[in-house]
Specification:
The protein has helices at about 20-35, 45-70, 80-85, 190-200, 210-220; strands at about 5-10, 15, 95-105, 110, 120, 130, 135, 140-150, 165, 170-175, 225-230, 245-250. It is an alpha+beta fold. Strand 5 and strand 6 form a beta hairpin.
Length: about 250
């Protein structure tokens, strides 16, 4: 057996064997050098050393599989996929932060937070919300400000749940969100979502107006799903689409 039998590329793709196969191969090579009677069982020093070498070979082969797969949008992951879809003019949609309007109560003239250390409120789910640095409580003793979640993504907060002070500050007495729930951000686009958008985007240079329109709409900011319908007849169809027109559900 040759090492090329354990890891190779053919017409069907990249292939590599499991760890025991690599271990058996390197043990065979060792016996060819030192003789068939050499003791290389797991409880021997030589056996353990060969196991380390076999694991290094196996890990290298597995890394090779990851590199090979990174060249295709259908199998690439993470940063590799983000780089692939740039060919289609796409960028992975980044996560955004949730926001919530907070009613701040306290002594007039109190300044909340400094650059690098904002004042923080916390909700009943232990989620933290940063209050804009330099917020100053006016003479009336209350002010409403828009706070931002510390964690990116769809952080939720119902009405009257952001009601505790996490960073005690002299003159800051209370906090709450009585006017409404938080406006949730969005999570970063997953690999599966990005692959689906890439597949649709390949219709951008298509030969039909319908496919090209759907591909263009799918690439707009904020669009998560879309489907285009066409009525090429001379009258309104059963879906209510006028004659000789298209309709895009977004």
């Amino acid at each position: 057996m040759n090492i090329s039998d354990l890891v190779y590329i053919d017409d069907t793709g990249y292939h590599f064997s499991d760890y025991p196969a690599f271990l058996a191969w390197i043990q065979d090579q060792y016996r060819l050098i030192y003789g068939a009677d050499v003791y290389i069982e797991p409880d021997s020093q030589d056996g353990q050393f060969l196991a380390i070498l076999a694991l290094a070979l196996y890990d290298t082969a597995a890394l090779g599989a990851s590199v090979f797969n990174s060249f295709s949008p259908s199998t690439a992951q993470g940063v590799g996929l983000s780089r692939n879809v740039k060919i289609n003019g796409l960028n992975r949609r980044a996560a955004t932060f949730s926001t919530v309007d907070l009613l701040i109560t306290g002594q007039a003239g109190t300044v909340l937070g400094v650059i690098g250390a904002p004042a923080v409120a916390i909700d009943t789910l232990e989620q933290k919300w940063n209050i804009p640095v330099g917020t100053t409580i006016p003479g009336g003793g209350t002010i409403t400000v828009t706070a931002t979640a510390q964690e990116a993504g769809a952080v939720q907060a119902a009405v009257n749940t952001v009601n505790r002070i996490f960073t005690p500050t002299r003159g800051w007495q209370a906090v709450n969100n009585p006017s409404g729930a938080a406006t949730a951000g969005v999570d970063a686009e997953t690999d599966a979502e990005l692959r689906a958008r890439q597949a649709i985007s390949t219709a951008n240079p298509s030969q039909t107006v319908l496919q090209g329109t759907q591909g263009a709409v799918a690439n707009l900011d904020g669009v998560t799903r879309c489907l285009a319908y066409e009525n090429d007849t001379g009258s309104t169809n059963g879906d209510g689409i006028p004659a000789h027109s298209i309709s895009v559900v977004v």
